[in-house]
Amino acid sequence: MFTHTHNNDSHTTADEVIRCEKLTKRYADGDILAVDRLDLSVYHGEIFGLLGPNGAGKTTTVGMLTTLVIPTGGKAVVASIDVVAQPALVKQVIGVVAQTNNLDRSLTVWENLYYHGRFFGMNAKEARAAADESLVRFRLAERAKADVMAISGGMAKRLMVARALLHHPSVLFLDEPTAGLDPQARIALWEILEKLHAEGQTILLTTHYMEEADSLCDRLAIMDHGRILAMDTPKNLKESVAADTIVTVSASGDLDALARLLQERVEGATKSQRLDTTIQLHVKGATGVLPRVVTVAEQGGYNITDLSIAEPTLETVFINLTGKELRD
Ligand SMILES: Nc1ncnc2c1ncn2[C@@H]1O[C@H](COP(=O)(O)OP(=O)(O)OP(=O)(O)O)[C@@H](O)[C@H]1O
Ligand SMILES: [Mg+2]
To answer: Which domain holds residue 196?
Structure first.
């Protein structure tokens, strides 16, 4: 649907489901700039990711897009509706899966869905049918009558996704969907999100797991300190690193000097970076890199304690942009 508002600056294009323009949030009387002039668009059918470390501003961004946090600057439009001007309307067309378990503890699994349907305007029969169908779809039917405090973390997350989708939102928001889940529950949730994606559901998720962003997202924005540092497909972001091999070196001694030495002496080295306790060496188009690294280090009098080799990841991209690791 093509729509535009009276203001020329805020038009949304046909398949733009989310649009932020200089979206900003300051907390604590302006002392904390949590989100700093964010510009981004999410298109129909995309899984879009906000990837960033603790405190990057991911939850605040989702909060503003889902009307829980009031922006202090800029604007945001979701499904052609201005989030500040018409928050109640926006709530009708979004589904939100919060980072923490916010299921209603006084209700059973089934009742959490049923009353959500009623709250969104379904009559009793419609809500019953929607809840029944949703439980089957999300493999929760066996626990329909269970207390929500009695189900596993993975199930609770699935129930939160089921609930968020019950009223067929234009866009599904998930804040750190797999934080705290065990690996098996994480994979199960990834499968659910991939299935929703295949069905054309627009999804915006936040994560600080680069593997999650890499495997799920069509496009992502790398965030730090409230700002977007890069935004593209995972593939393009990784290709933006001018290297095909990343060597991580742990050694004793002066790591800054070793980093310089490796960059000078290892064939194909394009860059070296000293992190907290390791060195990352970027290498392009060279073979036999590891023996060369060992030789150069030994000749320089260094004792290598650990050495590994990998292709560039989103972590590499993050380190390139910020000089620090994504995980702390
Ligand atoms: N209600 C609040 N009042 C004051 N400051 C806040 C509030 N909520 C968040 N902040 C601050 O805003 C910044 C961004 O926080 P936010 O929770 O959006 O980051 P995040 O990327 O979601 O981090 P995390 O990975 O820890 O969930 C941080 O500096 C945080 O301390
Ligand atoms: Mg958060």
So the answer is: 8-237
